[in-house]
Amino acid sequence: MKTYLRFGLLVVAIIGTLAWLAASGISESKTYYKTVSELKHMPASEAGRRVRVTGDVVPGSIRREGEHVRFQIHEKESNQMLSVVYMGKDPLPDTFRDSAQAMADGKLQSDGTFHANSIAAKCPSKYEAAPGKPAAQPLNSGKPTSI
Q: Which of 32, 37, 120, 132 could make a disulfide contact with 78, Cβ separation 3.0–4.6 Å?
C-alpha cells in the first residue's frame, strides 16, 4: 500500500508542477493592446506590464543609436505622441519608415518612454491603387477560369 501512496503523491506533485508552469507561462505571455492615450493614462501600478501600442511614425524621428533605435509614434485621434526605444535583436521591418503605421510590443518605463522588444510596421500606401487607376481585382473575381 505504501508504494501506491508514494506513486500517487509523485503523480500529484508532477501534475501540480506542470499546472503551475502552464499558468505562469500564460500570465507572462499575455499582452494587452493599448492606444497611446490609454498608455499615457495608465496607472503607475501597471507600468511594468507588457503591452502593444500602435501609431504612425513621426517623420524625421527615427534615430539609430548603436544597437537601439529611437523614434516617436503619433496617435491621430488624441493627437498624442509617445517616445519609443527599440531594443530588440531582430532587424526592423523593411516597411518601417517615416509616416508608416507601427506596432510596438514592450513595456512603458517610469520616465514615460516605451521600451519595445519587437516592432511590426505596415505602409498602407504601398498597397493602395495609384490615383486614377482601378484597384486590383482579386484572383477569383467570380468569373470562371479555364485550365
A: 37
